[in-house]
Amino acid sequence: MRIKLWLWIGGSVLLLALLFIGFQQWGRVTTSAESLSRNEAKDLVEKRYKGEITNIEQKDDKYVIEMDRNQIIYEIKLNAFNGEVLSFSKIGSKKEEQEQEPFEEGQPDQENQQELGEAGSGTKVILSESAAKEIALKEVDGIVDDIDLETSDDLMYYLVEIETADDREAVVEIHASTGKVLSISFDD
């Protein structure tokens, strides 16, 4: 009878120890991550894009950052928790502001980016999401489901997910600076 009592006590202690360890592990997983500070977000963007930050605001779980790169103003949306770039888009030009000339609608964004690249600054120029979307749709017919700007070993590229008419999903990988299609893969 005493053996059964000791087995129950030992089993209970073991169960409590396992529950304690489980709650500690579960607690670590469910705690909310700390967001980047304003200075950390600023440093991250300045190092990544080599420009001057003119404005930075935190809205909910992202930072909205304005950057001046060679007289062109860009808006960068950055995930406040992991530093992932959510979007990178051109919003204006200091040259345009100074000259007060209206923007010509027939002039594509890529021409402005090409001029920036030829300026000899050595900085990388990023295609807009809409330009990447157009390139992807020339390769695969369908509807764009999602588009993400990714970075891997100093290579920036867009991953464009496209739903095709035959219910397949294509993922088109596009070089963010040159617009070259790097790969196309299909999921069933």
TrEMBL record:
Q: Which domain of life is it from?
A: Bacteria
Provide ranges: composition bias, Acidic residues: 98-108
Stretches the record annotates as Disordered: 96-119
Q: Where is the PepSY domain?
A: 36-87, 127-183
Q: Which InterPro entries match?
A: PepSY
What's this protein's name? Answer: PepSY domain-containing protein
Q: What is the species of this protein?
A: Cytobacillus praedii
